[in-house]
Design a protein that fits this description.
A hairpin with a 2-residue loop joins strand 9 and strand 10. The strands form 3 sheets. Strands 1-6-7-5 form a 4-stranded antiparallel β-sheet, with helices on one face. Helix 5 packs across helix 6. The radius of gyration is 20 Å and the shape is globular. It has 7 helices and 10 strands. It is of the alpha+beta class. The protein binds a DNA duplex through loops.
Amino acid sequence: MPELPEVETVCIGLAQALIGRGIIGVEVRRKGLRVPFPVDLTQRITGGVVTAIHRRAKYILIALDNGQTIILHLGMSGRLTTEVMCDSQPLQYGKHDHLIVQFTGSPALLLRFNDPRRFGLCEVTSTSNLDQHKLLKPLGIEPLSDEFTAEYLHKILKGKGTSIKLALLDQHIVAGIGNIYACEALFYAGISPLRHAGDCTYIMLERLVTTIRQVLLAAIAAGGSSMRDYVRVDGSAGAFQDQVAVYDQAGKPCPSCTCDLAKTEGIQRVVQGGRSTFWCKIKQV
DNA sequence: CCGCTGTCCTGCCAGC
DNA sequence: TGCTGGCAGGACAGCG
């Protein structure tokens, strides 16, 4: 499940591989994913040279020198991988390769967008209007930016009746946090995921801002979490799944646990907003 | 405006 | 062994 650290890792890999290369071919192998691909996608990006690659929330932004920016989202199961283009044998297609982009260079490179569950997305927009794009404009602030503070959270969560866990998943509040890192950050902050967002004290939110940053930075350093589908652009797995405290750990003791497992039943799994939350009911209040 | 539910989609795994 | 049903979930539409 690509969240901020996974998307950041992919962006770093894409930047290393693609900046300075020109697009010489685009193969669109189906009409679209979660939304249709732009009908003029090929026309708008062919001939463009990659000048920069950025991340905004869970979106990958590939800027071209022709004034266009490609917007990609990996959804649940999307993979972007690069490989050296081989002239001597025909291109092999994976079952869910939906988009293939060819780049200049010696050797030339291929970028594959593979997405079995098809929750991903590819759009293109003019770079000058990027901030106004309908997908990016409503996004909340970046959790790794200086603007992400306890003051900000306290103000925006004031009066909110929804749970703090669902508030963290709301991309209009904080951009880029998904299920894994919401669970992990709440655990380290000692806050129950069931607590009403508006009932979190300022002290709690100060802790939460700190633990969100720590968890995201640790996951980026580990190359992301490969729980199921996610891989880096070279096809390798991330390593953060080996250091999760609570996510997908129902019934196990949490880190440095001194609780009586027979009484507490270990890490709890509950469903919030249709998705799993994992937490320790002793350490999180 | 707010919060909740349904929807999209396929792979995987438990259970029979 | 092979089938089936449930689950995984990011983001948005639509509802009350």
